[in-house]
Amino acid sequence: MNDKNSERSIILIVDDNQTNLDVLFELLRNYGFKVLVALDGESAIEQIEYIHPDLILLDIMMPGIDGFETCLRLKADPSTRDIPIIFMSALSETLDKVKGFQTGAVDYITKPFQHEEVLSRIQTHLTIRNLQQKLEEKNLELAHLNQNLERLVEQKTKQLIDQEKTAIIGRLTQGMVHNLKSPLQVIQTSVDLIETKATKIQEDTFLNYTKYIFQAVTKINQIMDTLMMKSRKEQNQDLHPVNINDLVQREIQLLEGNLYFKNKIRKKYFYDEKIESIPLIYSYISQVFYNLINNAMDAMWERKSRELTIVTRQDDSNIYMDIADTGCGIAPEDLSKLFDPFYTSKPPKGEEKIEGEPTGTGLGLYTCIELLKPFSGEIAISSNLGEGSVFTVVLPKQPKN
Ligand SMILES: Nc1ncnc2c1ncn2[C@@H]1O[C@H](COP(=O)(O)OP(=O)(O)OP(=O)(O)O)[C@@H](O)[C@H]1O
Ligand SMILES: [Mg+2]
């Protein structure tokens, strides 16, 4: 019976009967246990403060505090409550056994002892205690691993969010730059022309160029204003009656500074002269118009027929602005994706395969939808792949709340 448990385990025997103590002491020492003894409950508790035994054999009837009380005190102390306690007593009444278990003992042996029984119970409880300790260690290890894992997941998630944020900011910046590019180009072209033809230039042409520059600067200011993301209240203050015909005509004037628009595209305009003015934010609608025209121009890039048709019309409820192109068109399966932020069929800037190829960030249409929201405006699309598209801006005369 001498096994691993007995070789390293410390057992404390608590009994006021010297004969009993001697018998058990001899028995357990012969089996390789390290044995400690105490003659009463109080001295047992004192001793345990210095050396923690692996198991306690505890007599019930003792002078001073009895075995039950001793057991209760040991179980109440977190540093000793896990030490298994086996009660030993001459009392064989069921009531005592129940009370013993209630105070937290793991087992109960009755005197006079059967040596084999005592040893086998001790071995069993030491084994259980060993397994319990191992389990606790494993649990602790697991908790540590879990904690590390959680920290790692947290770190990784933060890293991914940061990366995503940086990517979004990068793409947003690209979008802004893209929107600012066109009016800046107008300024650049006008300044170039003034410089190269400075002496020959006629006064009215000169004034035309400065007008372009002035309009382009206004445009840049408007774009910047929109980027500042105004509050609903601020938006309401900016609402003014806008005649969509005037808006289109002014924007087209500005676009004439773009040479591709001016020289490479056939244009047709149909205005409903009776169109009503409705409260809008001018700069929002002009940006929507500008984005749609840009898309139309991109769609017609390197195509044989490049015809842009702009129509304004109205019915009882809405004002409409159609922008039709004879560009590449859109496949039916792609229609639902167009308004998703960052959806684009164009290469990003710097990754063009052919020189002059249009680039995109995929924010144009998404921005349009956001800009139309304050007026309950919408965009409807009809398109034939390979033939062209019509983008219609629908503006309710009475905005829905
Ligand atoms: N008139 C059009 N003809 C054909 N396809 C179009 C047209 N307008 C939009 N699209 C498709 O919708 C996509 C998304 O348009 P959107 O304006 O949101 O982004 P983008 O033009 O690619 O980039 P950007 O942010 O520079 O405007 C385009 O990449 C294109 O595939
Ligand atoms: Mg676009």
Shape: rod-shaped
- The CATH architecture term of the domain at 229-396 is 2-Layer Sandwich
Mean pLDDT: 87
As laid out across the biggest beta sheet, the strand order is: 2-1-3-4-5
SSE succession = HEHEHEHEHEHHHEHHEEHEEHEE
> What small molecules does this complex bind?
adenosine-5'-triphosphate, magnesium ion
Note the gap between the termini.
87 Å
CATH topology of the domain at 229-396: Heat Shock Protein 90
Give the fraction of residues assigned to helices.
40-55%
Describe this structure as you would to a colleague:
- There is one protein chain.
- The protein has a five-stranded parallel sheet, sandwiched between helices. It has a five-stranded mixed sheet with strand order 7-9-10-12-11. Strands 6-8 form a two-stranded antiparallel ribbon.
- A hairpin with a 3-residue loop joins strand 9 (307-314) and strand 10 (318-325).
- It is of the alpha/beta class and 401 residues long.
- The two termini are 87 Å apart.
- 51% of the residues lie in helices and 17% in strands.
- Among the domains are: 4-113, 3-Layer(aba) Sandwich (Rossmann fold); 229-396, Heat Shock Protein 90, CATH 3.30.565.
- It contains twelve helices and twelve strands.
- The model has no long low-confidence stretch (mean pLDDT 87).
- Adenosine-5'-triphosphate binds at residues 175, 178, 291, 295-296, 298-299, 325, 327-328, 330, 338, 343-346, 360-366, 389.
